[in-house]
Amino acid sequence: MALDGELFVVMDYVQGESLSKLLRGNTSLGTRIPVKIVTAIMAGVLHGSHAAHECKTARGEPLTIVHRDVSPQNVMVGADGVARVLDFGIAYVAGRVEPTDEGRIAGKLAYMSPEQLSGHKVDRHSDIYSAAVVLWELLTGQRLFSSESHAALSHRVFSGAVDPPSKHAPELPPPLEEVVMRGLALRPEDRWSSAREMAVALER
Q1: Among the four residues 50, 104, 177, 183, which has the most C-beta atoms within 10 Å?
Q2: Which long-range contacts (CB under 8 A, 24 or more apart) does 77-84 make?
Q3: pLDDT digits (tens, 9 = 90+) for 27-44
């Protein structure tokens, strides 16, 4: 939008709450968000992520967008029930000059994929991993990676030692657990091939 020769970015106002606030509210009450609502929210997050991953230039060239900060703080659940992924401020876009130093880690440590945490180049599989961390936390009502030090947290992530969510929420159906654990695979190639594929699996 331009006004009197000045350019402005106009963003839609979304009435709703952040997923992090909804999660804290349930935790404080000693409850968990119902599974059907969790799967609906995360399917929306994954479909939105897939749309970003598939974005192309005006010439039809892939932009290779990777959000790099999928977390409860960056998901808004609108009053209309639609989940939206927000804040692409540190997203990786192919061909864009990076304002940060090469190898610098950007994002929230507790939601980073192993490859992102190690400072390596990331692709869509990194966002899938982060979404799986969020899904794990919503289903269990607990933090997956919560360590006091960067070193301790990194060790846990790189070891791939992740409890299945049913260890903390025994009522979860095995197919749902399989969706989560595949998303949390240590190697990118062992995860879902796309965010949409994981979303469809959740919806099923």
Answers
A1: 183
A2: 77/16, 77/17, 77/18, 77/19, 77/22, 77/41, 78/14, 78/15, 78/16, 79/15, 79/16, 80/16, 81/40, 82/44, 83/19, 83/40, 83/41, 83/42, 83/44, 83/45, 83/48, 84/14, 84/44, 84/48
A3: 889 899 999 999 999 999
Nearest residue to 96 (alpha-carbon basis) of 57, 132, 149: 57
Q: What's this model's pTM, rounded to 2 decimal places? A: 0.88
Structure tokens given for 38 = 């969790």
Tokens, residue 46: 């994954």
Pairwise CA distance, residues 33 & 31, whole Å: 7
Backbone phi, psi, residue 32, to 5°: -125, 150
User: Could you tell me which of 174, 170, 63, 185 has the C-alpha nearest to residue 131?
Assistant: 185
Give 116-172 pLDDT, tens digit per residue. Answer: 999 888 999 999 999 999 999 999 999 999 877 888 888 889 998 899 999 999 999
Structural tokens at position 95: 């061909």
Residue 98 phi/psi, 5-degree rounding, is: -80, 130
Asked if 179 and 172 count as a contact pair (C-beta separation under 8 A), the reply is no
Q: Which of 4, 69, 80, 123 is catalytic?
A: 69
What does residue 110 show for φ and ψ, rounded to 5 degrees? -70, -10
d(CA 153, CA 109): 8
**CA–CA separation, 188 vs 168, rounded Å?**
25
